[in-house]
Specification:
Layout: H1 2-40, H2 48-99, H3 110-117, H4 121-134, H5 140-152, H6 156-168, H7 174-191, H8 195-208, H9 213-227
Helix pairs in contact: 1-2, 3-4, 4-5, 5-6, 6-7, 7-8, 8-9
């Protein structure tokens, strides 16, 4: 949506610059015709110098409008190429690979990563959520959503809510559950400055997986924090 609005604004500026460029050219043409008429009549009212000054001023303005028009047109073309043409060619290339008969595993995060590359973070989040619905036992969509919210949107509370939703909404395998819990504790400690909540999550890891390496890592983390 942001890029679409940028394209509309640039298109409007290009149209406005083109209008000013054309208008200045027409005014210069009319002034030159008036100068020719005045010359043919012997310039009885001595208006030629004034008309020439106006014509020169308009010509200078027309040159500036031309430079601005070229700059804006280049910017508009660049956005169109990056936003539409490059993805379109990439999509055609992908289809060419699939249609060639080669076995290529589809990337469930392709659309989300494409949105990420374009800086469309909200769209990327929605795409990752769709991937999570299609593969409920895959932790990666939730991890990526939290990363976007934490790093790109600078919204750690939203990232915390995302991880809590993921942890509480699925019966995860041990490794996946522990991974998500460690990431959640990291957010509380590093981003929110809430070591108490982070420590409670580590205690939960120890209670939930008492004889695992995750419990050992949680104990080490608690010792490190207590030593600070």
């Amino acid at each position: 949506m942001t890029k679409f609005i940028s394209i509309l604004i640039l298109a409007a500026l290009v149209a406005g610059s083109w209008f000013m460029f054309y208008k200045a050219g027409e005014e210069v043409r009319i002034l030159n015709e008036q100068i020719d008429v005045a010359y043919n009549q012997g310039d009885p009212e001595e208006i030629v110098p004034e008309l020439k000054t106006k014509a020169q001023g308009l010509e200078n303005q027309r040159v500036l409008n031309g430079v601005l028009l070229a700059f804006l047109s280049a910017g508009l073309a660049g956005i169109v190429v990056v936003s539409w043409l490059v993805p379109m060619f990439a999509n055609k290339l992908t289809h060419a690979v699939y249609d060639s008969g080669e076995e290529v595993e589809a990337d469930p995060f392709h659309d989300a990563r494409s949105f990420m590359a374009q800086g469309e973070y909200d769209a990327a989040i929605e795409s990752f959520k769709l991937a999570a619905e299609q593969d409920p036992l895959n932790r990666m969509p939730w991890v990526e959503i939290a990363k976007i919210q934490r790093v790109h949107l600078e919204n750690p509370p939203a990232a915390i809510e995302t991880l809590r939703t993921a942890i509480e909404g699925q019966a995860w395998e041990e490794n996946d559950a522990a991974f998500l819990m460690f990431r959640l504790a990291e957010l509380y400690d590093e981003d929110m400055g809430d070591r108490m909540s982070a420590s409670m999550i580590m205690e939960q890891v120890i209670q939930q997986f008492p004889d695992s390496r995750h419990a050992g890592n949680a104990r080490n983390k608690l010792r490190d924090w207590s030593a600070v």
